[in-house]
Each structure stands twice: as structure tokens, then as C-alpha cells.
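Q: What residues go here?
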């Protein structure tokens, strides 16, 4: 059985990791909580961005700075610790150089080149490795760890980012905003939509949307901690958009055009994006549906009273949109 303190440690690690979703590509968002022998939380940390310390190393560094390193007994990690040298040295080494005796792991590394290496190395060195999914009361939290990791897992297994379609419908079922406006959803839904922008690495749109809305695709309705350059893929022909819009877009985005939707997977594969968000009109949405080129479909439907109703359809067992409490929290900020 997983003790209560470990369950709470996983909750804390997932919430901390979620804060950096959208900033870590090409690395996954990962969280780590360190506990002492009595199960007291010592440190909660997460990976911030590629090239910086992984969650486990950052947590152990913070434990040293806080003077609690000697008390570290259990590490709770949302993803199997890495056992290979990339931009940074293996996390397994850092754990083995610490007093850690037990490592709880949320889900296995989906990278086919390194799968299993981290857990095996720790076990071989005498550390007790516990998999969340193998614990009778761990299934829900394991699913949340997989939801956190889903965009990275998609990139590792299919070579492209996770694709979330966001479609706003008015009370008549139309996607077209009233004249002079680009949106019609409520302020709360707009905050949610902008939190989704912040969490994703790439926007997919169409020339029809660009021409109709002159969209900026910026993060405005929630604070943008990341403020990094993102990718923007415009389905259609570049000749159909104004040079002025393109110049503006290029100040914030690396812009690509995709005149043939069948070439979209290859184009997406060339980027480092983990999570892509579709903000396009009916033309592109129909093409994506026809190609089965989407992973989850978020519909924001307005009723006659002006209230929005969210629904998510996913083609997979898990979706990052399942982390709804984290969403609510970040949409409130
Ligand atoms: N409510 C909502 O959530 C949203 C609403 N909208 C609204 O949608 C409306 C625009 O709709 P729409 O004109 O359909 O715009 P789209 O954004 O769907 O763009 C349509 C264009 O996409 C390109 N395209 C379509 N199919 C393919 C394909 N198979 N391969 C490659 N490119 C393709 C074509 O470009 P080309 O002709 O250059 O080849 C086509 O003209 C606007 O009123 C806008 O406000 C837009 C986004 C979100
Ligand atoms: N109409 C509509 C949306 N539309 C999307 O938002 C884009 C405008 O973004 P911006 O330029 O940043 O204001 C627009 O071009 C389209 O992609 N989004 C929503 O959340 N709700 C809405 O009702």
C-alpha cells in the first residue's frame, strides 16, 4: 500500500511540475518531492526548462541549501529518473549520492532508448524502487502522472506533439464571432483558453482565421511566466495572409505554412514542441478530423444564458486536460 504521505507527495510534485508545463520542451515536465523517514515533506521541486537541473537534482540541491539533505529518506518522482547523460548528468547518480533509500516512481520513461534504465540502476544499487501503478491505491495518481507526461510520451512514441483542438461554439453552434470581435466566450473561459496557450508550445491555425481575425495568439488573460518564443503553423497558402500580420507574428513566433494537411505530421516532427493547440476555423478542423490528426478535442459551448460548458473528447486513455484542478488553479492566477 502507498502511505498517505506518499500520495500527498505525488500531489505536490504534480502540481509543481504543472507550473512549468509549456516551458520544458523538448524535456518533459517532471516533479519531485523529498520526504524524511517520518514522511514529512522536506522539498518540492520541478524541472524548469531544458538545460537546467532535472527535478530530482534540483530537489536534492535545494535540500542541501536548506540544510535537510542528511534527512532525505524517500524521493517521490512523477517520472522514472533518467540514467543517461544528456545536457545534464544522470539523476540516478544524484539519488545514489544522497541518503535516499526509497524512490517512488509515477510512471515509466516513455523514451524507447532509455526505458527501464533508471529504475533498474537504482534497484541494482540497493535502493527500494516502488512503482505507483503497482500499489493497490496508486492507480488514480499514476493516471495523473501519465496525464502530465502525455505530450512528451506522444513525442517519444509518435515523433510529433500532442494535439489539442480548442473549439468555441456560440448558442447557435456557430464558431464565427460577432462582427468586430474575435471571441465570444466568457472571461473565465478566455482565461482558461489563455492558460492552455501558456501550457502549449505550438499553435496550429488556418489562413481563414488569420484573414478573418487578425489574431495575435498571445497569452494575455493569464500571466505568462514563460514569455518564450513559440511555434505557429498556419495551414494554407502564405500568399493568403498579409505581410503586416506575418511580420507581427514573426516577432513572437517561428512561423511555418502548411498548404497540405497530410504534410502536417512531418512539419510538426521537425519542431521540438511537446504540446500543440489548434485555434482554427471550421475548414482546418474538418481537415484534422478527416486525417484523425488530433488527440483531444475541447469544446467550449455557450448556452442561451451566456454560460460556457466545457467538454473533452480524447482518442487516448489519458489526456493532459484531465489535470483539471491544476487548470483551475492556473486559470485563477
Ligand atoms: N470559435 C472558434 O473556436 C474559432 C473560430 N474561428 C472563426 O473561424 C472563421 C474562419 O474559418 P475558416 O475560413 O474555415 O478558417 P480556417 O482557420 O479553418 O482556415 C481555412 C484555410 O485553411 C486552409 N486549409 C483548409 N484545409 C486544408 C488542408 N486540407 N490542408 C492545408 N490547408 C488547408 C485553407 O487555406 P488556403 O485557402 O490558404 O489554402 C483554408 O482556406 C472565422 O470567422 C474565425 O473567427 C477561428 C478559430 C477558432
Ligand atoms: N472565437 C473564439 C476563439 N477564437 C480564437 O481566438 C483567436 C483570437 O485570439 P487573439 O487574437 O489572441 O484575441 C481567434 O483567431 C481564434 O483562433 N477562442 C476562444 O477561446 N473563444 C472564442 O469565442
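A:
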Amino acid at each position: 500500500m502507498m502511505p498517505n504521505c506518499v500520495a500527498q507527495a505525488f500531489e505536490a510534485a504534480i502540481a509543481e511540475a504543472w507550473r512549468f508545463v509549456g516551458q520544458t520542451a523538448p524535456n518533459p515536465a517532471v516533479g519531485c518531492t523529498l520526504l524524511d523517514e517520518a514522511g514529512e515533506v522536506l522539498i518540492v521541486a520541478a524541472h524548469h526548462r531544458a538545460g537546467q537541473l532535472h527535478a530530482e537534482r534540483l530537489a536534492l540541491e535545494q535540500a542541501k541549501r536548506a540544510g535537510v539533505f542528511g534527512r532525505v529518506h524517500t524521493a517521490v518522482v512523477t517520472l522514472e529518473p533518467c540514467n543517461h547523460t544528456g545536457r545534464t548528468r544522470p539523476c540516478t547518480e544524484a539519488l545514489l549520492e544522497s541518503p535516499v533509500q526509497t524512490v517512488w516512481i509515477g510512471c515509466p520513461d516513455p523514451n524507447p532508448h532509455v526505458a527501464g534504465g533508471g529504475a533498474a540502476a537504482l534497484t541494482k544499487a540497493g535502493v527500494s524502487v516502488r512503482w505507483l501503478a503497482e500499489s493497490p491505491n496508486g492507480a488514480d495518481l499514476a493516471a495523473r502522472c501519465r496525464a502530465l507526461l502525455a505530450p512528451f510520451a506522444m513525442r517519444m512514441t509518435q515523433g510529433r506533439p500532442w494535439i489539442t483542438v480548442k473549439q468555441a461554439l456560440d448558442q447557435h453552434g456557430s464558431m464565427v464571432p460577432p462582427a468586430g470581435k474575435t471571441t465570444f466566450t466568457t472571461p473565465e473561459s478566455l482565461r482558461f483558453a489563455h492558460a492552455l496557450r501558456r501550457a502549449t508550445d505550438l499553435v496550429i491555425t488556418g489562413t481563414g482565421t488569420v484573414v478573418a481575425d487578425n489574431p495575435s495568439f498571445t497569452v494575455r488573460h493569464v500571466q505568462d511566466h514563460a514569455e518564450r518564443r513559440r511555434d505557429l503553423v498556419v495551414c494554407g497558402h502564405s500568399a493568403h495572409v498579409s505581410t503586416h500580420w506575418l511580420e507581427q507574428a514573426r516577432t513572437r513566433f517561428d512561423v511555418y505554412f502548411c498548404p497540405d494537411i497530410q504534410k502536417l505530421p512531418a512539419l510538426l516532427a521537425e519542431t521540438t514542441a511537446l504540446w500543440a493547440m489548434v485555434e482554427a476555423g471550421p475548414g482546418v478542423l474538418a481537415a484534422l478530423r478527416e486525417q484523425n490528426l488530433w488527440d483531444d478535442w475541447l469544446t467550449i459551448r455557450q448556452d442561451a444564458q451566456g454560460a460556457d460548458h466545457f467538454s473533452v473528447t480524447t482518442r487516448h486513455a489519458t489526456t493532459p486536460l484531465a489535470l483539471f484542478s491544476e487548470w483551475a488553479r492556473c486559470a485563477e492566477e
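A: Context that may help when evaluating the design: Residues 167-168, 175-177, 205-209, 212-213, 235-237, 240, 258-261, 279-284, 287 surround NDP (ligand 1) (CB under 6 Å). The mean pLDDT is 94.
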